[in-house]
Amino acid sequence: EQKSTRVHVGLQKLEKGAQDVAAMKITLAQEEEKLQQADLTTTQMLKKLQRSSLEAKKEADAVSKIKEKCEIDANRIAGEKLLAEKDLAKAQPFVEEAERAVNSIKPNDLNELKKLQKPSDIIKLIFDVVGLLKMQKLNPVEPTQVILGIGKEKRTFTFLKDSYKLMQHGLLSDARFLQSIFSFSKYDKDLINDETIELMQPYLEIYEYNALVARNASKAAEGLCTWSRAMNSYHEASKIVKPKLEALRIAQGRLDAAQRELDKAENKLRGCTEILNDLQNDFEAQMQKKQKIANGATAIRKKMEQATTLIDGLSGERARWTDDSSKFDIAKQCLVGDVALASAFISYCGGFNQEFRAIIMQQKLTPDLNAREIPTTNNLHLIDFLVNLAQRGDWALEGLPTDPLSLQNGILVTRSSRYPLLIDPQGQALNWIKNHGAHQLPTFGTTALSSQRLRDQLEYCMAEGKALIITGIQQSLDPMLDPVLEKNIIIKGKSKFIKILDKLCEMNDSFTMYLITRLPNPIFSPEDQAKTTVVDFTVTRRGLEEQLLARVIRHESKALEEQLQTVMEQVAKNTRSLLQLDEELLERLSANQGNLLDDDALINVLSATKTMALDVQKKLITADETRTSIREKRETYRPAATRGALLYFAIVDMTSVSHMYQTSLAQFQNLFDKSMDSAEKTAMPSKRVAFLIEQMTYVVCRNICRGLYERDRLSFKLLLLLSILISAERLTPNDVALLLKGGAALDATNAVNIKPVPWLSDMTWLHVLALSNEHKVFRQLPEELARHEAEWRAWFAHNEPETKPIPIYEAQLATGDTGAFSRLLLVRALREDRTLLCVNDFIIATSVLEYQGQKLPVLGPRYVENNTDTIETVYSSTTAKLPVIFLLSAGADTTDAIETFARKKKRQVTCVSMGEGQEPIALNAISYGAENGSWVVIQNAHLGLEFMETLEELLLPDTPQKQNSNGCSSEDGPPILTSGLPLCEPEFRLFLTTEPHPKFPIGLLQLSLKVTVEPPSGLRAGILRSFSVIVDQDRLERVETEQWRQLLYALCFLHSIVQERRKFGPLGWCVPYEYNTGDITACILFLERHLYNGPISWSTFQYMVAEVQYGGKITDSVDRRLFNTYAQVWLSTATCTDTWTFNPKEPIQHIPGDFQYIVPKAPEMQPYRSHVECFPEIDSPEIFGLHPNADLTFRIKEVNALISTLAETQPKGGGGQGGGESREEIVLSKAQELLERLPRNYIEEEYKTKIQKLGGLSVPLNIFLFQEIQRLQAVIAKVRFQLEQLQLAIRGEVVMTSELQEALDKIADASAPHAWIYTLTGDEFSWILPALGLWFSSLLARDEQLRTWLCNGRPHCYWLTGFFNPTGFLTAMKQEVTRKHKQDKWALDDVVYRTEVQPFERVDHVKQSPTEGVYLHGLFLDGAAYDKKESILVESEPKKLFVPLPILHVSVLTKEESHKRRKELYGSHGPYECPVYKYRPRTDRFFIFFVTLKCTPEKNAKHWTLRGVALLTTDSA
């Protein structure tokens, strides 16, 4: 409002000024005409003045001559006068003496004198002298006797008779006697003549006529005596001066006469001068009038020029202010809405990323305000609305990135009334806050939520108005902070207080607080979020790219970066100045009360301000040009910064895979800097950039992969490669989604295209359809498969299809940057098992990428090489303050290696295994090691997480402050938790070993060097490890028999086999047991003692190994059967024969090098090691007893792990990818589609009625049907409710709960939501399938089976997969059959299942139900195939993992009849008891029952047991 007023007033002033300038032009013309007339008049007057001046000059010359003569006489007379005055000055002392004498006479003295009846003679004589001087009448002269003198000196002599009586009645009777004496001395003394002096001489010549004698008579007489003598002396002295004075008077008279003549002449001259002066005055008046007119014209002209210059100079501002003025009305109208938007942004948007903030502001809040008819500014730019350019520049200098998200975060932190809670995994916010509030930080810097001194620090900062930064926030806040966060202020007088716990603490208005968490995705309670302003400060790619670009420039061209920094500072300073000057211009214009042009001072100030503004604008333009030039040079290095940002965000994405993969931005920047130092140097910037990218990518990948488990390293490299290609716009996020999801979102039953070739599985066909729908290269892939089936099948059946040309598409895929990726998509769709190998080929092929006319390195061959890190290489990267965290996996430990290396380095090692009460021991060990330079190994760090948090503070490079006796800082502030190790010896090293733990301190992980430790994989590595750690020469010689050594080797071989078999997943072991060194050691010790006691008992030996030592860990009966089979086959008499080999008798697939896995015979260690070292690099599954297809299973398992890992790293944002639909829009559409296809609900009354028609609930299978319908209805209701709620939540009509968010993410990833599959307690709620399409197809198929059964009666053949409780189904069938044989006295506990594979291949071949039992379909053989003609188990076909089992008849028999039947049907070798599971994971939870399958004597039950053959109800899970 104020600015609007100022702008309006300023514009009015400028408009009025322009009008005044126009008026001035008319006035100026009139004044100039007056000036010409005045100039003419002045010229005429000047001529007249000149004539009068000549006349006056003549008179002046005459007067000057007279005056000159007068001056000469005056000077002479003055000289004479001076001489006379000098002579006169000689008589002056006598006058002064007389005056003193008179002054000494007091009136009382005269009164006393007057009262004397007989005055002494001296008095009488004195008065006679006074009378003479005063010209008084005296008595006639006659002699008389007088007495004068004092005391003995008195004498009497004859003298003139006195006239005292006359004086007494004359002088003395006069009241003004003394005044007359004074007057005489002053004025009449020069009238004394010689006659008077002569008459006075007789008196003065008397010796006794002196002051002393007179004083004896009277004090008044003394004064008069002295006065009379002084008058006499003055007269004598003045007689010389008087002639001179007389001559002086005569000369003065002549001078006066001359002066009178001079006066007459001067009067005449004065008259001429007056006439001249009048003319001069008139002339001057005319000149003044002329000058006034000229000055007025000049002033008007100057004023007009100033005003014109000012108004012209402010033309830019005038135009801008005019534009602003026109917008102010609109702005005022929109101000309420804009402020509402800004307030909502600050209040609610801090916790979201930039994309969601835009959605909230633009798609939610703005339409809502408009709907309420509250106007808002179109496309309101909140950053410009809330902060000016100058403030942004200051923030940039303080370290805040300049990307929009960071600027928004700066606004949220500085504008919010609540204290900010910052999500800051990279430390960006902490660095900025430290710089931004440096002036307000306490001396202790930051503190942690776990600090013991937090309360004191909080109290101190509140009282002193400091900024308190609290780090280490986890998922919740300390309740102690609640009163502060809620600002529960208590006012007492002029002070404010907040009660913290039980203490009232003073609150300074300047106090502020920042809460910072390092967690990348924390979950705070709604209460904590309401108390604070949550701000997501997670670094953005753009912001990081700018930071890394600055680092590159600083490294490559430091001067350029410093110049840019200087320019940025100048721009920020000048921008501030420009805004301030603009504000001053408006303020001065609006503050002026009168006419703008009448205020010269204002015009001058405005002109000066405008001049400064123009200067600042020029500087800004120059700075902008400089900045543009610098940025053009900087852009050369941007590809390196871009690659760095991609690398870092790929690292960050891996934290979603494992909490232990935390890497700080500081660690990454350190690697970034090291790679720049080690990159090849060159003078050409483009080549240097390529070298930087190549070295940086490799160094970072190499160091990061060191801290990743082997299973995740390829995922990281692929993730990085995909990020690079997306950044270079070679791929889109949709391409990545296609790689990850394939056809998982499609429904095979709803597919438009029917599968054209039978040799593709349903899931593979869905992948093909998705590929043709989403990828332009493969649009015609389904048609091409049908058209060229033979070529495609040959390629599909090849063992290494990724190395062979792809039919039809090879030429197209061989060119372009994305050919390798397209090949990967095709391999992933058709031959999923070869995906990992194709990923490696993809990495190798994508070594160089052309981007913006420059060839840049990407990855390449060396990124697929296996690199092994030893303790030596790890040690070279460590320092005393850089701990090493070894991430362990089952069967791996690095303590021995550390101790061995320490002995080599001659360092002492202290090992502390964490557990209860070990924290003080560990702390002492670390402190001692830091002081003495020894090494410390903290084992099992995951068991001491609280100590790990303390260790993080201990390792932070903070300097503890000195504290006083009260525990407070000696400088200021409360006490702080001292952190940091003592001065570390450079040789000190700290090693930690830990298993992955989700609560391991993030700070410690980001502070440390992480290295994964995994046991060596493969038979060769396992057996070599056994012959290094367990078996040595001493053990080899303990029993001196060849059988001992053969069985010892066989045990080591078996140990390695059972460990490596785990990699095949459920096909290997139902439960992946952690067999360790203790198991084989116990078996070896038993064998050793057993052989000491005599000949070996094979059954005992086999039992002890399979059932006791290893079997003690085995919980699954099928696994126990498998291990017993291994013991029976490999630990037998045959093992000790010369012809024994672990190779299969008839290998299905060629074993590399035709290697024979024999049992070496040697008394020494070396032959054993040499034999093992010759093992093939890749272990054939047949050595484990498995089919070669098991390798396919293993590879698919790894591929699924890779896809799952990559899926976890994908963003869960809501924006559209590549301009397409947003994630939420896709899910919304999918939810609607699923709702439309969802079966209708089951009405309990209806299906109960129908079940009654089927025989009622007394029939076991009817009870089962009732239960299945109830469970299916629960699933349908759950799915319908959640889909409807999800739609409402996406539209914003209900709260998006965590369950709905999980459902949204799962559906977006083409997976079934967790709540559809499991209950809250983790129990199975529905069925487990990997893809949403398959899960929903299963729902429809289950519904179809149950509705058909309910409406049409029992089916002839049941789909076992479609039951929630297949075991319950079989139990119900068992009850019904048992009831039928009630007369035969069958009991439920006495019967067992009887299974028989039927000749029917498909369900539609079954025309009627069996007389007893049920027909089942939907079972798949895993690990074997079934020969329908011979009705026996046979080996699987290559690359065919699952084989449908024909229709299976299941019934029951008594145990006795079953035993007889088994011998008759299966012979002495018996059948294979094949377990049936609901899903691929083979646990007791999913076990259904056993099916007896016929096998041959050559490939008997033991053979199929080692093969891991089982039946599954699905081939998808």
Average pLDDT? 83
Task: Give the radius of gyration.
Answer: 61 Å
Main β-sheet: number of strands, strand sense, barrel status?
Answer: 5 strands, parallel
How does the overall form come out from the CA principal axes?
elongated
Number of helices: 54
Which strand-content bin applies to the residues?
5-15%
- Widest sheet: strand order? 4-5-9-3-10
**Ends: how far apart?**
67 Å
Unreliable spans: 958-979, 1215-1219
Tell me roughly what share of residues is in helical segments: 55-70%
Structure classification? alpha/beta
User: Tally of extended strands?
Assistant: 28
Q: Topology of this protein?
A:
Elements: H1 2-103, H2 107-115, H3 121-133, E1 143-148, E2 155-160, H4 164-169, H5 177-188, H6 194-205, H7 211-217, H8 219-238, H9 241-313, H10 315-348, H11 354-371, H12 382-386, H13 389-397, H14 404-415, E3 420-423, H15 428-436, E4 446-448, H16 454-464, E5 467-471, H17 482-485, E6 489-492, E7 495-500, E8 503-506, E9 512-517, H18 526-531, E10 533-536, H19 541-556, H20 558-591, H21 600-635, H22 638-654, H23 665-678, H24 685-706, H25 710-727, H26 733-741, H27 762-774, H28 781-787, H29 789-797, H30 810-813, H31 819-830, H32 835-845, E11 848-851, E12 854-857, H33 871-875, E13 884-888, H34 895-905, E14 909-913, H35 919-932, E15 935-939, H36 945-955, E16 989-994, H37 1002-1007, E17 1009-1013, H38 1019-1030, H39 1033-1036, H40 1042-1060, H41 1077-1092, H42 1098-1109, H43 1117-1130, H44 1165-1173, H45 1189-1209, H46 1223-1237, H47 1244-1253, H48 1260-1290, H49 1298-1308, H50 1314-1317, H51 1332-1352, E18 1357-1359, H52 1366-1380, E19 1391-1397, E20 1414-1417, E21 1420-1422, E22 1425-1427, E23 1432-1434, E24 1442-1444, E25 1448-1454, H53 1455-1466, E26 1472-1477, E27 1487-1493, ...
Parallel strand pairs: 3-9, 3-10, 4-5, 5-9, 13-16, 13-17, 14-15, 15-16, 18-20, 26-28
Antiparallel strand pairs: 1-2, 6-7, 7-8, 11-12, 19-25, 20-25, 21-24, 21-28, 22-23, 26-27
Helix pairs in contact: 1-5, 1-8, 1-9, 1-10, 1-20, 3-6, 3-8, 7-8, 9-10, 9-21, 10-11, 13-20, 19-20, 19-22, 19-23, 20-21, 22-24, 22-25, 23-24, 25-32, 25-45, 26-45, 27-31, 31-32, 38-40, 38-44, 40-41, 41-42, 42-43, 46-48, 47-48, 48-49, 48-51, 48-52
